[in-house]
Amino acid sequence: MADDTTDTKSSNQMWGGRFASGPDAIMEEINASIGFDKKLFAQDIRGSIAHATMLAHQGIISADDKDKIVHGLNTILSEIESGNFEFSRQLEDIHMNVEARLATLIGPAAGRLHTARSRNDQVALDFRLWVKEELQKTEQMLTGLIAAFLDRAEEHAESVMPGFTHLQTAQPVTFGHHCMAYVEMFGRDRARVRHAIEHLDESPIGAAALAGTGYPIDRHMTAKALGFREPTRNSIDTVSDRDFAIEFLSIAAIAGMHLSRLAEEIVIWSTPQFGFVRLSDAFSTGSSIMPQKKNPDAAELVRAKTGRINGSLVALLTIMKGLPLAYSKDMQEDKEQVFDAAESLELAIAAMTGMVRDMTVNTARMKAAAGSGYSTATDLADWLVREASLPFRDAHHVTGRAVALAESKGCDLAELPLSDLQAIHADITDKVYDVLTVEASVASRKSFGGTAPSEVRRQIAFWRARN
Ligand code: ARG
Fold this sequence. Notes:
By secondary structure, the chain is mostly helical.
């Protein structure tokens, strides 16, 4: 490493007053965040415009300087948007890249922008604004996914399929009911997103380095200008808090887990062995060696993205867990985790929405599978309770014997002759065959939230009114 006698690099133009020399190359590399935080340019500029406007309003800077600053910042915004901005790693981060360019554009007035603020409240502001926008986008995307499921549920309110527990055939359900389970899951995710937006809706700017400032700033004014409900209340907490980012990642992790379970089901359902759904060409891929294959790659990648999102959540929790108040540079590592998770989550929701909308549902395969595996055994037991007054436990036992008999004969429960059933329990009549079909089984489950088409339609109406 270079020692300072051989170091000819100049010190940082923003904070280098007390430094005789510039940073070692490695120092610059480990310290710089511009490679990723340039993503925050629009938020940084919005924040600076609001701050400068407030400073002028409070008489802390002149109106003339404010006008120069605002004009210069707008110029920088269009330079960055049109790709005509040269980011410099020597200037560390987005905040100092923008401010240095402002000095080039407008001269000494640029030096007044950083009055009564610090990069600590500045980065807290920029990042919060970014996460807020991302949460709003996530809310909309989840609404789109829910809408896709509502349409499929409506279309298949009566289509029967096997319901599973332990991935073993349990009882017949409707595909519409299964779709509505996902509506509940993504509806909860969306509610979490809305709560998170409420939690973070406080403006950090004006907390300054950590202690607030002696300048007569108006934090309510900047909060309002930036679309926040109110300013944060404690300046120390403000610059050391990354809960909003961790909350975003937690929500992303839970939504990712839901998306991954859906992905897993689609992978299973689209196998030739199940054949419940066929993915559209638009959401599947072929194999370079096996011409017959149609692979659910998008679903598999959604499943994998969830692992990445979980990694980001654990990473940021770990980054934050040992930090003393208030700001520490460790916190600079917050952004890549959130950016990466946001990209993964957006892709995963978009891919799943497309897959759900496009997939062909093979109702005949589902119905055939729904009837196999003795899925109406519970219906037989319930019939014995209802019509023959057996206690449920006894009915369960009688039914178990009927299943064993059907298994030994290689037939379904509904295919057992009445004489066989009566040999197991004398009170069984031919009325029992009415409940042994999958349609009758499904239609009978009218309990609130149950799988009967009438209940599924009630659930759909509930969500339609809220989507
Ligand atoms: N690039 C920094 C970050 O992302 C900005 C804040 C730097 N503050 C400081 N005191 N060095 O956290």
